[in-house]
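Hi R.,

Here's the chain you asked about this morning:
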Amino acid sequence: LAAGQALQRLYRAADVCEELKQSAEAVQAHKDFESSGIPTLQAVEALDVLKGKLDDLRVCAFRPCGKAWMVAISCSCFDAEVLGTSAEYDRQIATALAAERFL
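And the predicted structure, written out as tokens:
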């Protein structure tokens, strides 16, 4: 039962760039985080340019309990692991804030 509940709270984006674009739009519409939309769009542009050089690019979100989402954007690049993390009550805003750190 607990494993099933945990899986229901797990989200993995099928298309990383599309997920970040949607998150940038959502965050620009939010009054408290609207300035975070620009770094998110910059992350999308950087990822588009680096597509052939990045391995295992992923956006994963998890809501362990309550309402807050924890988001991680990760990839391997030139034999190094790159990670951007964030936590926020809205999954798309958490994703945008993670993209800002990932960049």
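Helices lie at 2-8, 16-28, 37-49, 91-102.

Let me know if you need anything else.
M.
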